[in-house]
């Protein structure tokens, strides 16, 4: 059965690897599973066909046979559970990996996304400049805590896992905004993730979509 995922027809991140289909592409590349991509315009994302797959009208989605999933974290977890390479086999290590997957999405990512909203969506509001330092303070708190926990380890819990995959994709947004500059071990951690051949293949595929759209 062919795996089909959805992605932006024209990505708002301008091909920088920040759109969340990147997580799914990377996971599929890590486990060497071929996939097809259905590109969607912003209008198509809100039409009934796509809303039937994703009730909130976003990307990515994942389809394989009669299974349809939405939410990037859930999709990565499914890929990791059904193909070897992203989850440890030992029960406790497996549980810790899933723990880090949730931490990436539920603890580290929210303030980073709040910063995007504060700068881009609400940037013209009279109170935006007062709010941004508060958001940055919450981000730095999380980055300090994560930096302390990672220390000089290569990955979060032993070998590279789905927990690292999601955490690196979350931290890429902090890297793009310069917020990682104060945390050399986190910057090196992200660089290790970006250096993985599977990441490189996924990034190239996502960037090719942006370049093709820009050329039209």
């Amino acid at each position: 059965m062919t795996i089909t995922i959805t992605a932006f027809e024209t990505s708002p991140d301008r091909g920088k690897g920040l759109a969340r289909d990147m997580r799914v592409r990377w996971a599929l590349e890590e486990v060497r599973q071929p996939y097809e991509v259905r590109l969607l315009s912003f209008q198509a994302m809100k039409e009934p066909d796509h809303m039937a797959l994703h009730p909130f009208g976003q990307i990515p989605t994942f389809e394989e046979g009669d299974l349809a999933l939405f939410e990037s974290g859930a999709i990565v977890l499914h890929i990791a559970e059904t193909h070897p390479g992203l989850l440890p086999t030992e029960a406790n290590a497996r549980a810790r990996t899933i723990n880090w997957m949730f931490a990436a999405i539920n603890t580290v990512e929210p303030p980073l996304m709040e910063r995007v909203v504060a700068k881009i969506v609400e940037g013209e509001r009279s109170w935006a400049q007062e709010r941004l330092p508060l958001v940055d303070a919450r981000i730095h708190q999380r980055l300090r805590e994560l930096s302390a926990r990672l220390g000089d380890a290569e990955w979060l819990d032993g070998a590279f896992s789905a927990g690292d995959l999601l955490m690196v994709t979350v931290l890429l947004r902090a890297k793009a905004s310069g917020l990682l500059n104060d945390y050399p071990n986190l910057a090196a951690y992200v660089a290790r993730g970006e250096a993985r051949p599977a990441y490189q293949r996924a990034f190239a595929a996502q960037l090719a979509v942006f370049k093709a759209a820009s050329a039209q």
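The helical segments are 21-30, 48-53, 72-82, 91-121, 128-150, 162-176, 184-195, 197-215. The beta strands are 3-8, 35-40, 61-64, 67-70.
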